[in-house]
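Good morning C.,

I know you're traveling, so I'll keep this short. The sequence:
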Amino acid sequence: MLSEDAQELGGDPDEIAEVYGGVALKENEVSQKDRSLEVVEPQNRSAKINEYINPAMFRTTDEDNWSASLQSVLDQPSVSFPQKLILGGMIFSVAFGAWATFGKIDQVGHAQGKLVPKGAVYKIHPTEPGKIINLAIKEGQKVKAGQLLAELDPETASSEVERLDKILDAYQIQLVQQISSIERTRLEAQASKAISEADKRGAEAAIARARASVA
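The tokens, ready to paste straight into the viewer:
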């Protein structure tokens, strides 16, 4: 068992006499009082080896890692450090208080309700019926008199204009016909008047001749 441990430590089993701090030492490097080599069971081997390990070989102190001046600074903090800590806490408290007093937090809520306009409600009535194709305003927007609110579909108005044009043309034709009828009636009246006057003159002449024959 010990021979296997010696081979693992990298040496000849006959030359290995002691394990010191995890380092294999040869027999001539071991002191006379520590020459005895004891074979122990595997379960007691680690405890036996720990008895020969010097803890001082692995202990490091702050003096080994730091210089004297730096070590003194670390051991004795600056006198102004507590003051700086208190000052930083006061600045943080003032900043937090100012933010809590004057800061604004946007809150978003979801709820169901009904919008009620403030003031009087005005109903909009178009002068001409039609279909809305463009709404120039938004809900809740302020408007003024004369502002365009909505645009109607011109197709409906165009159809209505064409219909009215046809009616106007028909009325104009009727007007021309009536004027022609009036003119014809006037001419007929004039002819009738001329005939009546001729008949009157003929009757007067006949009466005059009859009176002359009687006398």
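Safe travels,
E.
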